Amino acid sequence: MRHVFALRILPLIASIAYAVIVLAIAGCDSPASSRPPIPAAAPGQVAPAPSAPVPVATPPPHAAGPVVPSFEASVKVEANEVYYTLPKYVWGMKFTGYDNGRVNDESTKSADGKTYSELILDLKMDWLKAAYYARFGTPAEPSIVAQNWKILADKIVDAGGAYFPEIHILPKGFPGSKLPPEDVNNMDDAVGGGGVENVMAWFDLFAKEKGVDKIRGYEPYNEPCTRTDISPSKQYWYSKKDGPHPDRKAADWATVHQRQIAIPLMEKYPDLTVCGSAFSAPASSYGIAELTRFIEGYEGWPWKDNNTKYMTALSIHSYGFSGIKIKGMPAAPDGGQSSINSYFFPTYDNPGRKSGYRAAVDKIRTVLEKNGGENVKLANTEWWALGTKLLDPAAGSRSALGDIIGTVVHCQNADKWKFDSISFHASNASPMASDLSTWTGPEDCMVGIANNQLYRPVRYYVAKDIVGKFFNNYKKLVRVQSTSPIGSQGIANNPIDSIQACAGLSEKGDKIAVLIMNANTQEKGNVTVAFDRVASGTVQATILPAAQPIDTPLPVKMIDVKNNQVSLTIDPAGAVLLEASLQ
Which residues contact 458 (CB under 8 A, 6 or more apart)? Predict the structure, then answer.
């Protein structure tokens, strides 16, 4: 989840102060999670202190006049063999605590007269992921956040979606448990609290009102090691006042008690995706170790087996930035190039700087397989890849590219990772400056508010017309083979192929979509796309340019098919969704 009053920043561990990208473990509705979590300290060690906020640079648009260099590339679509079929419900967004009452606002509207709720429904996402770090309340007496979430979640379900709530289980004595994490009875039993019975009551309500088939997933907590009193909200599990290493205790509490919520839910609702861990930062120096500890357990915990049988998906969070201003790291676009590259860089090496999401998740899968977790899937329950406070066209496009990165990298690796789902952060509305130059509230939102009007940032249109369209309509994934030059290595020396792509067929197999992104921030790509099945007539191209104004729909154009091929040019750090009919 995301906090209201602080920027989400990189945890600059003293030994890896050169880090380019972080996959934040935190993300909750209290202000603490606007910075990524402090890694849980090992017994006898002190966790590093949080760093000061790091300003985020935004790539400037190319200056008018000079010719932008280009490269040649080809993409071959192999449409005759499906390698992975995405679930019926595969994508959604997180609904956080801040400004959650906007769902009841019928007066503030967009330029075309739509309310906040109408704008969110237009996205046609599969779920609205509840998020509340404290007590959710009971179905009979829900918290205000739970009430507002359910109003909008019900509408999404009625429109064809499903439920995927995050209702926290909590330790006894919350806030501030005095019991050790290893005490199996250390579970909240307050009325309306964070106990197992209350979670079951909510799912029983969902099943009764909408049907069992409308229950999609569940996450029982949010980035546990941040649930300490570093949080200004004071909604914490363990406090430093009660002993050292509260982050270690909080992380271990989730590890120990995962099965106590999973077993009853999995028995009653066997098709439900029950997530485990809600950790992140796998590309950091501590991320893999923490995820391994969650999967395997640790010496002194009360169980004889590991956690792989008590989750159907390992959930992780991912956050990154378009440029980092730290020693040795120039401002974007170089920093931005390194961040983009790290999501695709294949080698787990020099974590936190060179490696990133793909390499880390590959490593996580080996840990799962080694521990009997062959059937455990991967769910990213908070995705926000590239961010900036600025709202100029170049910044807006770069931020939106982050959601395309999330789509492409998960689909490219869907079979290997056993990809379950992705939830983008966040569906909420957030304040903008009156001149629309910058976010004045959290910048990871899909809707902006200024001058008593709602605005759609570029991320909104990418979610609606590229990401959502692909996930909703083209679930049968097919291979693409791309040939392109290695792009800029950035300051982190982690170069990747300039063109990254994925493709999917419609349910009937008569239509195909190819999502292509140019990972090169300096050069445009002249791309030829070849289909191995005959594509008829023309192809529709929905385009993310390098610089797209706020509140402006993405450009769409038709491209003629010649000899089963189409040719197009993609801006630096741009993308395109091609949709074609197959004969």
Answer: 393, 396, 397, 399, 400, 544, 548, 550, 554
Domain with residue 542: its CATH number is 2.60.40.1180
Do 454 and 561 sit in the same domain of this protein?
Answer: no
* 48 located within any domain: no
489-526 burial code (b ≥16 CB/10 A, e <16): bbbbebbbbbbbbbbbbbeeeebbbbbbbbbbbbbbbe
Number of domains comprising the chain: 2
Tens digit of each residue's pLDDT (9 = 90 or more) over 89-139: 999 999 987 788 899 999 999 999 999 999 999 999 999 998 777 788 999
Structure token pair of residue 162: 């499903």
The tens digit of pLDDT for each residue in 512-541 reads: 999 999 999 999 999 999 998 888 899 999
Distance (Å) of CA 505 to CA 81, 84, 316, 471, 475: 10, 11, 27, 10, 6
Range of the domain at 559: 70-82+478-581
CA proximity to 463, closest of 396, 558, 557: 396
**Structure pTM?**
0.88
How many C-beta atoms surround the C-beta of residue 53 within 10 A? 13
Per DSSP, 382 falls in state E
How many residues are present in the chain?
583
Determine which helix (DSSP H) or strand (DSSP E) holds 469, and give its type and residue range.
helix 468-473
423 and 507 inside one domain: no
Contact, 321 vs 342, CB < 8 A? no
List the structure tokens of 333.
């676009």
